[in-house]
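Morning run. Coffee first, then this:
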Amino acid sequence: MSGKGDLAKLDVGVLTADQQEKLRQFKIKTRINNEKYLRSHPEVEVLIGDFLRDVLLKRPADIQDFAADHFTNPDLHVLIGSKMEENME
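And here it is:
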């Protein structure tokens, strides 16, 4: 898997001015679409926040196993639903 550092090695200077503008517009459109999606699905914030809270409280040695267990919990939808209701109060 490529590391984040690999992105820094990309040379956008090899793109034409038109390609750079299209890339810029694509990035803007993607950010807007992502923001719209996240605003229409507040449960995503609750899911991620709940997971991070558990990680920081429990500090598991094997984060991948912990994440797998967390997100495959058959009662996860109930837990998230109740937290969503708490947030609305």
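The mean pLDDT is 88. Good start to the day.
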